[in-house]
C-alpha cells in the first residue's frame, strides 16, 4: 500500500518537488491512479532530505500521522527547505498496524532513508517474528515500531552492512520475505547519492530530465513522456551521475 517517491538532482525546494507537480504526493494520497490496494492514503506521510551533497551524511526528516492534504505545517517548511536528494511517502496503514509516527516512512539509519509501498502477508500472524529472528542484534535494536516496513529496513541494513550494493540489498530482503510468504514488496532506498527501488506487486515509474535530475515514484508526477514504467519483479538503480538502469529480480 502507500505511494512513495525519490528525487536526485539539482537542489530545489521541497514544495516544488513534493507539492506542486500536477499529480503530486498530495494528489496521489487522495486519488491514486495505479495503487493495487485502493485509491486513498490517509494515514500520515513523511519526507526525508539531505541538506548537503557529496559524501554520505545524515538526512533530515519530517513525519506525521495527519493526511498530507490536512497538514498545515509542512507547506511552509517545504517552501523554505532546499535539497537535491529527497525520499517521501504517503501511507495507507496495513491491516493490524497502528497509526503512529514511528510507523511512517521514511525510516532513517544514517545515511539511509527507506520506505515500503506494500505489505508482507502474515506479518502479524508470525511471519514478522520469523523474519525478525534473522535480523542482527545491532539492527534489531534500531527498530522502534511494529510495522513490516521497518522490519524490512532492518533486513536491508544488514545486507548493506555485509557489503551489498543498494540494489542487491533490496533483492536480498525480497528473497528473505518471499521464501516465507507473499506480499507487495515495492521498496525504496537512498543514501542521498544513489537510489534503488523494487517493483514487486505494485506500480513503479522512473523519469530523467535535463540537469540531470532523476525521479523514481509509484506514479508519474506529471505528463512528461519520459516517465517509464518499471516492469514487475524488477529493480531500478540510479547512480551518482543520475543515470538509471533496470535489473530483473
Could you name the CATH homologous superfamily? Aminohydrolase, N-terminal nucleophile (Ntn) domain
CATH topology type: Glutamine Phosphoribosylpyrophosphate, subunit 1, domain 1
- The name of the CATH architecture is 4-Layer Sandwich
User: How many DSSP helices?
Assistant: 7
Number of strands: 13
What count of domains describes the coordinates? 1
Query: Strand fraction band?
Result: 25-35%
Spatial ordering of strands, largest sheet: 3-2-4-1-10-9-11
Q: Helicity level, as a percent range?
A: 10-25%
How can the largest sheet be summarized?
A: 7 strands, antiparallel
Task: Look at the structure and give the mean pLDDT.
Answer: 94
CATH class: Alpha Beta
The rough form would be described as globular
Calculate Rg over CA atoms: 16 Å
SSE topology string: EHHEEHEEEHHHHEEEEEEE
Q: Which spans of ≥5 residues are poorly predicted at pLDDT below 50?
A: none
Instruction: Give the termini distance in whole angstroms.
Output: 20 Å
Describe the oligomeric state of these chains in a short phrase.
Answer: single chain
Briefly note the structural class of the backbone.
alpha+beta
Describe the structure.
With 249 residues, the protein is an alpha+beta fold. Helices cover 22% and strands 31% of the residues. The protein contains seven helices and 13 strands. The mean pLDDT is 94.
